[in-house]
UniProtKB/TrEMBL annotation:
The lineage of its organism: Eukaryota, Metazoa, Chordata, Craniata, Vertebrata. It comes from the Eukaryota. This is Transcription factor 25 (basic helix-loop-helix). It comes from Oreochromis niloticus. GO terms for cellular component: RQC complex.
């Protein structure tokens, strides 16, 4: 009887208890992919960790980079069949699935990447204590942040904003001392108002506080007055926010507003590119919060008051104009990266040419220029150089016959080419078959690490 039970016990999978995601029965059998976490140092109660790649994993990583350079996604699929928990392959293929609008598959691949990471956590690494750090400058750590970010965005799209917020807090807490992941490091609280998202959101919060039913009338009036003041300053400081916001809210502004130089087309033309990125991010993310009738009425009244102050040559208007010119000369690389990851068209359309004309890889978009490299890829013979854009390279990776020059001369055939692209991607994803990795000689080894 014991002999009959032994094969079934050998086929049983032991899953480690995880916090970020739970393993699924449909996933390939988990085998350590070659990722580990090391404690670098402990200073002032803060633990500094880093992920490390084994020599075998480094070889897989080199093959992945070869597959990316081949511009044939089938090579990535083949690599993932042999290494079903290779992180960068999971991230890259997730992007392909998402573009194809297969959200379930895209989300599943990200969850598998997070599971692989969590199984490699150091015993002292904590997701909740706020005392664990991972340096974004190290390439091995960046994939963890990208997986967290993409998982957070999937949660938000599924209507789980509170859970998404917790993942946002996790991203910030593990990279608190670095500015490399979309975050400005402001030393004083008052400096937060220099960002359009904080300026407008703070005003909106005070407005909603004033609208609470159980609030004292005097307190309500006080909160509303504060909201009016903050929104006026926000509109004076960032006038280019108004028209895109109204456009997304499908609200036609008054002729007096559109014809005025302060809020009219000139406000968009005069806006510095760096500020345009921040404005696009805020408008694209939060316009739904401004659609409410009461909020829109409040905004309309405040805009009229702002125009009155502008026409009266209020010194605050000139002061804010000078601040805009001084503070938003150029956006740092981490802001460009965040705009790319956000995929908010209002923001991506404002990216400078030095960003849009360079290749951007989904598994490591715009890596920091001062990255800390623990190992390097062996030099390879590069055959030919290409001046094609990232988009044309992506199309050609899926359609080898795609030619950007031909497409430029035959714009009317673009829709047909895109349809061919979608068909190719569907065929590719339909044929994905993950093979089981070879079982270890001793299936009961390390049982104490699994639940």
């Amino acid at each position: 009887v014991l002999g009959d039970q032994r094969p079934r016990q050998r086929n049983r999978q032991f899953h480690r208890t995880t916090w970020m995601t739970s393993p699924k029965d449909s996933w390939p059998r988990f085998s350590r992919p070659g990722i580990s976490m090391t404690l670098l140092e402990t200073k002032d109660g803060i633990h500094y960790f880093t992920f490390e790649h084994s020599r075998e994993y480094q070889q897989v990583q080199f093959k992945f980079l070869d597959a990316v350079e081949s511009m044939d996604p089938n090579n990535i699929v083949a690599l993932l069949q042999l290494n079903p928990y290779h992180i960068d392959s999971l991230l890259q293929l997730s992007d392909v699935c998402r573009i194809q609008e297969d959200q379930e598959m895209a989300r599943d691949l990200i969850e598998r990447a997070l599971y692989s990471f969590e199984c490699a956590f150091h015993p002292l690494f904590s997701l909740t204590s706020g005392t664990s750090r991972l340096d974004y400058l190290r390439p091995e750590n960046r994939a963890f942040y990208l997986a967290l970010y993409k998982h957070m965005m999937f949660l938000e799209k599924r209507g789980c904003p509170r859970t998404a917020l917790e993942y946002c807090k996790l991203i910030l807490s593990t990279n608190l001392l670095s500015q490399e992941l979309f975050v400005f490091a402001f030393q004083e609280h008052r400096n937060l108002s220099q960002l359009p998202n904080f300026a407008f959101s703070t005003a909106l919060c005070y407005f909603h506080l004033s609208q609470q039913e159980n609030i004292d009338p005097e307190e309500s009036h006080k909160q509303r007055h504060k909201a009016d003041e903050l929104l006026q300053i926000a509109l004076i400081m960032f006038p280019a926010v108004l028209m895109p916001l109204l456009d997304l809210c499908t609200v036609q502004p008054d002729a007096a507003v559109t014809s005025h130089s302060f809020f009219g087309p000139n406000s968009q033309i005069r806006q510095l590119p760096a500020l345009a990125e921040l404005t696009g991010l805020y408008v694209g993310r939060t316009y739904t919060l401004w659609r409410e009738a009461a909020v829109m009425l409040w905004l309309e009244e405040t805009v009229k008051e702002v125009l009155r102050r502008v026409d009266a040559k209020d010194p605050v208007v000139e002061d804010c104009q000078n601040k805009r010119k001084q503070r938003y000369q150029s956006a740092p690389r981490n802001i460009h990266r965040h705009v790319l990851l956000s995929e908010i068209k209002e923001a991506t359309s404002t990216l400078p040419l030095e960003v849009t004309t360079q290749p951007v890889m989904g598994f490591d978009p715009l890596p920091p220029l001062d990255s800390v490299m623990s190992y390097t890829r062996p030099e390879r013979q590069r055959v030919g150089a290409s001046n094609e854009s990232t988009l044309s390279l992506f199309f050609r990776s899926l359609l080898p016959n795609f030619n950007i020059q031909v497409m430029a001369r035959a714009g009317q055939e673009l829709n047909q080419e895109v349809n061919r692209l979608m068909v190719a991607m569907r065929d590719m994803l339909a044929n994905i078959r993950f093979q089981e990795p070879p079982r270890e000689d001793n299936p009961y080894r390390d049982d104490d690490e699994w639940d």
